[in-house]
Please model this.
Amino acid sequence: MSQDKPISFTSRRAKDKTAYILVCIFSFLAMVPLFFILWDVVSKGYKNFNLRLFTEVTPSSVDALMARMNGDPIPGGILNGITGSLLIVGLAILISIPLGLSIGIYLSEHRGKRFAGTISYLTDLLQGMPSIVIGIIAYAWVVKPLGGYSALAGSVALAIMMLPMIVRSTEETMNMLPTSYKEAGLALGSSYTNVVFKILLPSGFGGIFTGILLAISRVMGETAPLMLTALGASVVNWKLMEPTSAIPLLIWDFYNDPNLVDLIWSSSLLLLIVIFLLNWVAKIVARKWKV
Amino acid sequence: MKDKIFRLFLFVAALLVLVLAAAIVYALVSRSSEAFQEYGILEFMTNAEWDPRSATEEYGALSFILGTLYTAFFALLLCIPFALSVALFNGVYFKEKKIAGVVRSVVDLLAGIPSIVYGLWGFYTVRPLVIDLGVNAQGFGIFLSSIVLAIMIIPYASSLSSEFLSMVPNNLKEGAYSLGATRFEVVQHVSMPMASSGIVASFILALGRALGETMAVTMLIGNTNRIPHGLRDTGNTMASVIANQFGEADGLKLSALIAIGLLLFIITAVINLIAKLVMKKLSHA
Model:
């Protein structure tokens, strides 16, 4: 505060008040879009949000057009997308959790060392990678060599996205645990393996599980990498080597097909419910099992 | 013995990250080499022509590079007042108050909404408003994409900034208060300068997000393969052209699209590196 002339107290007060009010207004405005988006999705989506959505596969464009012309509700649901999302995300979880936990434990155990620092930096790099580039990678690694689009390729893409998130949350949780936990276990003659599985992982359960749930919720709505890998399918598919649909992929299809437009919002509503539920559970877990 | 195997396993897992990163670079480089060999790296980056017709086939990335920079930087500019306000709200003005928790939760939810839902909302709700504003006839374009992008990156910029703001030591702020400073003066002369590197870093990271964002932009930018003339114009970003044209691409076109992916990867990697360096400066200060 190096002004030459003293500034009057009233003008300083006025400035202070103005800044305060502006911060409040802009913060409020920043939250407004969420409510608009939720309102849009809920108000347009609830009409077609029924049992049919969960039990029937996507109708063909022609069937949907006929129903539209007759004024009937759209004949079908997104069962193929729901099962596809379960398959693709499920496999991505199976791939990324064991790896993510191991890497996180390693980084926490060797923190401050050069190799761990390099790995840590690369993890950040992976986390910042655009999802479409990860789609290209899975295309190059899985789709091309195996000769076709597949659920497996989609899972690989999503697993690459989940991995850095799980590594980070595991590492941070492990770093927060008191060193005395580990030392006490080792002092009692327990093996390092036992210390990790019987002491460290259980005590860090809350933080790690929260991180996993958030990672799942993040990839649940991913569309771009799946377009390049899983491609989509109009039937329910449980085979790993076949093209498979997913809820976000279906939303993209509906967006591009004017006859199926009625299903856009109910699918989006379902997707948002799943994602917010995962976020909510994550929050509860984080509070309940606080490290 | 069991311990040795377990420790070895952990090491191998960590090593895998290194392998993964190397394999990513290798996959991108090897699959894009055809395009780079055909045109040369510099030529590819400075050519604005994107013409997939087989008779006059020619590929250059300049239109998409510029489209990406326009949308991302305009989005960053738009998001600054909002993200900074949220950061100050949570990290300074209402630090550790209940209302800050509410604002944080709401903004976090904003980060949870999938890109494709943002795209739908932009298409059905924001686009008519942009048309009413008279930006252009169809509503699609840089302007529309940037508005939606700005909303999408607010959570990324604000959550990290507020963390850095809340870490400013209390005794410094109290010192300023005791000298008679108003709250705004404390923010202006103590909190903001102390947290400046952290705030800059979080906005750089948000910029990285905006550069790579795909679905929402693909749905809103208009997808024209030429250099956008100003904010009202339509265009394509690097991510959106890949999303749009990858499916039907093969041969040289596929290689050119992957080359764009490689460039995008390099840009975001550099952005992340810069953010990291800025933050490092902070921890030394």
Remarks:
- The mean pLDDT of chain B is 93.
- Chain B touches chain A through 83 residues (CB under 8 Å).
